[in-house]
C-alpha cells in the first residue's frame, strides 16, 4: 500500500460547477502561448526518483457561512489527491485493459503545510472573509488580500489552492507553468466541488476530481484532445500514450471502448471531462510531462520545507525525540531523550492531520512500532508531557 494520508499570459482552466448538470461545461481551458515550444518541455527520465512531497496551503475565501468549509472537508480533498496521483483510487478498476499498461503512479505526495513561510507552525489552511457576495472565484482579486481575497504564500515553495464561490456555474481555474502573475500561481476550486463531504456531495462533481484535473494543468497537462477541440483529431496533448480524441464526454460515464478518432478514447483520464465517478488515471507520458514541468518551471517545490515538522514551543536543550533510520521501512524506531521518569504520551499524525494515539512511553528507552500496515507518506511523531512537546518528521 502507498499514500492514503489521506499552468506563460494566462492559460486558465475554467471548470464549471455541479449545479445543474445539463447546463454545465466541466472545463474551458485555453493556453495563450500554445505555439511557444518552450512551454512544452519534453519528458525526462525519472527512473527511481523518490516521492516528491508537495506542500499545499488551502486559502478559504468566504462570504456566507456555507462557503467557509470545514477543515475535515479540506482534508478529504488532500486524501483524494494522494489517491489519484498514486493510482490508488477506487475507480482504477474502470481503466480498460488496453490502457492498464500505461497507468502511472505519479508519486506526488500532497500534504497540508506544517511550516508557514515565516517559520511558524501551521495547519496549512487560511480563512479570509470577503465582502464579495457575487463570487470572487475566478477573479484576480481572489489572490490579493487588499482586494478582498488572500495573498499567496511563496508560490515557488507552496502549491496555493484557493477555495471560494464562483459566479455562475464555474467550478475551477489553474495557471499553467510560467503563465500569469507570479503571485497568482496555483489552483482555484469552487467550494461546492472541493473534497467529498460537506458542500461537495452533489454529483457529478462530488469526488474531488476538479482539483485533481486543475493540478494537472498546474503541472502542464493539456486536455487529452489537446489545446483545440475543434481540430482535435489532428492535434494532441503532447503525450504519446494518450490517444488523439475528439470527444469531451461531458456528463457521461462511458463503459467499454469508445471512439472519436482512430483509436479508443482514454475517457477515464483525469484530463478528460467525464464525471468524477468515471475518472481514474494519469498516463506514464503525462507523468513524465508533469515531472518535466516540475523541474523546468516549479523547481522550488522540490526543496521546499513547507511540510517540515515545527516545534510549537521552546524545549530544554537536552530534550529530543530521536527517530532512527529516517526514511523508515516497516518499523518505526524512536527514543525520547529527556530527564525524569514520568511517562510521555506519544501520538502519530499523518499528512492530512489524522491523529493516532500510540500510548505512553518512558524516556531514554528504544521502542519499535510496527509500520508495515501503514501507507507510505509523511508523518509527524509527537511526544507530550506536562505541557512539553517534542516532535519529529517521519517519511516512509
- DSSP summary, beta strand count: 15
- Distance from N terminus to C terminus (CA atoms, Å) equals 11 Å
Largest sheet features: 8 strands, mixed
H-E string: EEEHEEEEEHHEEEEEEE
The CATH first-level class of the largest domain comes to Alpha Beta
As for the CATH topology of the largest domain, it is Collagenase (Catalytic Domain)
CATH superfamily of the largest domain: Collagenase (Catalytic Domain)
Per CATH, the architecture of the largest domain is 3-Layer(aba) Sandwich
**Helix content range of the residues, please?**
under 10%
Mean pLDDT over the residues: 84
Number of domains: 2
Can you tell me the overall shape? globular
**How does the helix and strand content classify structurally?**
mainly beta
* Uncertain residue ranges: 1-23, 34-38, 311-318
Spatial extent as radius of gyration: 22 Å
Strand portion, in percent? 15-25%
Number of helices: 3
Amino acid at each position: 500500500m502507498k499514500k492514503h494520508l489521506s499552468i506563460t499570459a494566462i492559460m486558465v482552466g475554467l471548470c464549471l460547477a455541479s449545479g445543474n448538470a445539463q447546463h454545465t461545461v466541466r472545463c474551458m481551458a485555453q493556453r495563450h502561448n500554445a505555439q511557444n515550444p518552450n512551454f512544452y518541455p519534453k519528458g525526462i527520465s525519472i527512473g527511481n526518483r523518490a516521492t516528491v512531497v508537495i506542500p499545499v496551503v488551502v486559502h478559504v475565501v468566504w462570504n456566507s457561512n456555507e462557503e467557509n468549509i470545514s477543515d475535515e472537508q479540506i482534508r478529504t480533498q488532500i486524501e483524494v489527491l494522494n489517491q489519484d496521483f498514486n493510482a490508488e483510487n477506487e475507480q482504477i478498476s474502470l481503466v480498460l485493459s488496453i490502457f492498464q499498461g500505461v497507468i502511472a503512479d505519479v508519486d506526488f505526495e500532497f500534504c497540508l503545510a506544517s511550516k508557514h513561510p515565516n517559520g511558524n507552525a501551521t495547519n496549512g489552511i487560511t480563512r479570509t472573509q470577503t465582502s464579495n457576495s457575487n463570487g470572487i472565484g475566478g477573479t484576480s482579486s481572489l489572490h490579493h488580500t487588499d482586494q478582498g481575497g488572500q495573498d499567496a504564500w511563496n508560490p515557488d515553495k507552496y502549491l496555493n489552492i484557493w477555495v471560494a464561490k464562483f459566479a455562475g456555474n464555474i467550478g475551477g481555474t489553474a495557471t499553467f507553468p510560467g503563465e500569469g502573475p507570479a503571485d497568482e500561481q496555483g489552483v482555484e476550486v469552487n467550494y461546492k466541488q472541493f473534497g467529498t463531504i460537506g458542500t461537495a456531495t452533489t454529483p457529478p462533481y462530488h469526488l474531488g476530481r476538479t482539483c485533481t484535473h486543475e493540478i494537472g494543468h498546474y503541472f502542464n497537462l493539456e486536455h487529452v484532445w489537446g489545446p483545440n477541440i475543434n481540430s482535435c483529431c489532428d492535434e494532441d496533448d503532447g503525450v504519446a500514450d494518450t490517444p488523439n480524441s475528439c470527444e469531451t464526454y461531458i456528463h457521461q460515464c462511458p463503459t467499454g471502448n469508445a471512439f472519436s478518432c482512430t483509436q479508443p478514447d482514454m475517457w477515464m483520464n483525469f484530463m478528460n471531462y467525464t464525471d468524477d465517478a468515471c475518472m481514474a488515471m494519469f498516463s506514464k507520458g503525462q507523468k513524465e510531462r508533469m515531472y518535466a514541468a516540475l523541474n523546468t518551471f516549479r523547481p522550488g517545490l522540490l526543496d521546499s520545507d513547507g511540510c517540515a515538522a515545527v516545534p510549537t514551543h521552546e524545549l530544554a536543550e537536552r530534550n529530543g525525540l530521536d527517530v532512527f533510520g529516517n526514511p523508515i521501512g516497516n518499523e518505526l524506531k524512536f527514543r525520547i531523550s529527556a530527564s525524569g521518569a514520568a511517562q510521555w504520551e506519544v501520538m502519530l499524525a499523518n499528512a492530512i492531520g489524522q491523529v493516532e494515539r500510540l500510548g505512553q512511553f518512558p524516556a531514554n528507552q528504544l521502542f519499535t512500532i510496527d509500520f508495515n500496515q501503514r501507507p507510505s507518506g509523511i508523518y509527524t511523531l509527537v511526544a507530550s508531557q506536562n505541557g512539553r512537546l517534542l516532535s519529529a518528521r517521519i517519511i516512509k
